[in-house]
Give the backbone structure.
Amino acid sequence: MGGYAMRLIGITGGVGAGKSEILRFIKQHYYCKIYLADEVAHRLQRPGEACYERLVALLGKGVLSTDGSIDKGKMAARIFLDKDLLVKVNAIVHPAVREYLEKAVEEASGDGETELFFIEAALLIENGYNDFVDEMWYIYARDDVRRARLKSSRGYDDEKITHIMESQLSEERFRVGSDFVLDNSGDLSEAYSQIQKRLEAYKWKE
């Protein structure tokens, strides 16, 4: 490992900022582990996992698919009708995700191979991860760039994009809550060079 203690880095930013492309590059070139908080949350909602029983007790069996798993669409519809439910769902899911990630970090720090551990989520700052990670990265892109990407990659219209953007932290809040701002408004090669400079102390993997 080159004598370095594993560094824990949070990756956050608004929708359309290009977090996935940044993480793809990092995974390819560094000795790291990458966890997406949303994927962990979905995993923990499966039958037999930490959140399943409590969510079914809260939301009712009407959110289940025929195979007994929680149907994400049905769950979203229930929450949409009752905002208090969202608070209760988050109170079940977020602590379970945090506990899962803490265990994963502990395991990775002792494996002798992982130099960098990345956690990605849009809500890292809101959910208090600043006190957990060693540093927080804000993946920034101009609004016009983000809109163009979302229209192209996801087929979203302006109204939907505006609604999502307004529900997320402002650029100022993201910047205040972060230790490093990576500008991903331009060509990806520009973003990659920023990453290489930030991580120059860590081993490069071809």
Strands lie at 7-12, 32-36, 116-120, 135-140, 180-183. The first strand starts at residue 7 and ends at 12. The chain has a mean pLDDT of 94. The CA atoms of residues 41 and 95 lie 10 Å apart.
